[in-house]
């Protein structure tokens, strides 16, 4: 027994060390082979019946008690019983009487003679070669060794080259499944155990099946865990690593869930010619953030300081944790592709407060000729994300939540950007955001059918509320946005974002630029998503074969089936909703420009819960609407939210008569100042403005960030005189609206889609007034009523 335990301990230590992370190491430790010591025949028989599927081997005396008395043939009888059920289980009998050796051979067991000077060496050989401990030794039928494998990867490699007779020899004796079970790789072991050599037409068929089974198992394992990063063994054998310890943060945790979901459901390979995946990434755990702050005494300073530039100067100059920096260098050595450096804070992407768009994301070229330069840029980008946790925007956001800034911890995700290089630019063919719930459905779509927004190039245009195309994955050919030539010309994308891979850049080696569609056409990427408007015929034609104005309509994808985008997104959102127990939002990117022979790629770059308002009570709006505008401040049939909101006396108004698009950024700054003042007073308010709120395009509306409007309980956006406004569905702004349960009204009076009582608002005395914004404080509160079931709402005058 001491010799057996010594060998078992050495084997277990080796197998445990191969675990990809702490959880897997613990699992392997708990699943390591066990020794069951039985003292009589009945106990041995009971143990074998209980564990017969998992027995690696049996070592037994020839003589031991049976039926309460010593039996000289108990061991032989036990071997015969086992052999009837499992002819391939290794069994060794041992005795001090050499005459039992021949009987042991006759019943198909090995034999060890007690008292031999070599008994322990023989026992060790049996444990290694017959019971599956140690290396897998490939042998020919006559016993000659031809190769060895120490782990799953080397086993897969050796299977491709060893002689066919060796594979037949081991396959006939279930040596592969036994060795895998001894290493706690039960999934593939149990899959191989029932297979027989006779089931295959040729030895090569057996070889390929073994290679495929082990390869699929390795991929599944790699896709199901977040591996601890090891500088000495890093090789992208898995594609999701953690540097340091602590939490992964919400964003990385969501991606880890997606990887597991794809692996377990088989979604990754469900669509022929398409790899649905999570792009390779490494996560700096929250403990690296903690060490950075504490070692440089930055925590109290960053919490109290209101000067963002000073915070950045201090963070930029502070030394980065040495071990984490060395790990990053090892990662960058084998990751020469553009990287997204993304926040993944502890509170981010939570079920109730997603913290969407609060912290920084930076896009790195990662193509400097020197590894030291690439490392320096990456470390600076990580520090920039750390500093964003203490920005005015983050502090303003947190002020509207029950959380404290000192509770927040920041992990950072370094993720490969999905896309390809086209000339001097890098970008994906398609980027977008898919939601499993549509807050503004149009027949025949329903809310549960979901909605997707897509664009050509980097996804910045979608998440920031820019021009993009929206469609329902279940009705991909029914696109209301393209229902008329006028709407198509007005609302579709005319430019795209990409990363320039040459030329000047900032100290972080990053810079996204906006390009015209003529550049995409020259790059060859517009053909997959483009259409042509012919002014002569006043018509839009699919494809680029005609002369005319180029439009991004995604017709080749949605109508002609160039890529199964709608089908994939419908499947993903359904699986995500089931997995997360509620509606989800998925950010994704598609790369069609892949080398010949490789599958096209759809990368899921984020999945988070989508908050919904509770619709517990019926809301009666009364006969307001167009019949009685004199009683209401605003009425709309395009409303997000449900319920009654009372007690609002403060109104912040951007008057459409005063507003100048060229100065929309000034208006956003004025609103931000009022928002901070009202938040400090604990006064909720109604915000009314023109154009699209939260759009980063100042010509489409007022480009406020969430911290500048976080105190508003209700927000109204009204169409401009020459621009019909669509409900703001930019990913970041929209997530915050839904999670904070802010009432949201969209009004287009010129199209007879609701109204705002501008004359009444203009007649109210202002508490403060400046170039763009008026602050009203009414003597009596307004009443807001929203029917989320109908998408209708009214704001009643006092």
Structural features, described:
With 798 residues, the protein is of the alpha+beta class. Helices cover 34% and strands 24% of the residues. Strands 27, 28, 29, 30, 33, 34, 35, 36, 37 and 38 form a ten-stranded mixed beta sheet that branches. The chain is elongated. The mean pLDDT is 86.
Summarize the topology.
Elements: H1 2-17, H2 22-30, H3 41-51, E1 58-61, E2 64-66, E3 69-71, H4 74-85, E4 91-95, H5 100-106, E5 110-113, H6 119-129, E6 136-139, E7 145-149, H7 152-159, H8 164-172, H9 175-182, H10 186-192, H11 203-224, E8 227-228, E9 240-243, H12 249-265, E10 274-277, E11 281-284, H13 286-295, H14 299-304, H15 308-317, H16 322-333, E12 339-345, E13 361-364, H17 371-388, H18 392-399, E14 410-416, E15 420-422, E16 425-427, E17 430-435, E18 451-455, H19 460-463, E19 469-471, H20 485-491, E20 495-500, E21 513-516, H21 517-523, E22 530-534, E23 539-542, E24 549-552, H22 555-558, H23 565-580, E25 584-591, E26 600-609, E27 632-636, E28 639-640, E29 643-654, H24 664-681, E30 685-690, E31 692-693, E32 701-702, E33 712-718, H25 731-739, E34 743-747, E35 755-756, H26 758-763, E36 766-769, E37 773-787, E38 792-796
Parallel strand pairs: 1-4, 4-5, 8-9, 9-11, 10-26, 29-30, 30-33, 31-32, 33-34
Antiparallel strand pairs: 2-3, 6-7, 11-14, 12-13, 12-14, 15-16, 16-20, 17-18, 17-25, 18-19, 20-21, 22-23, 22-24, 25-26, 27-35, 27-38, 28-34, 29-37, 36-37, 37-38
Helix pairs in contact: 1-2, 3-4, 7-11, 8-11, 9-10, 10-11, 11-12, 15-17, 16-17
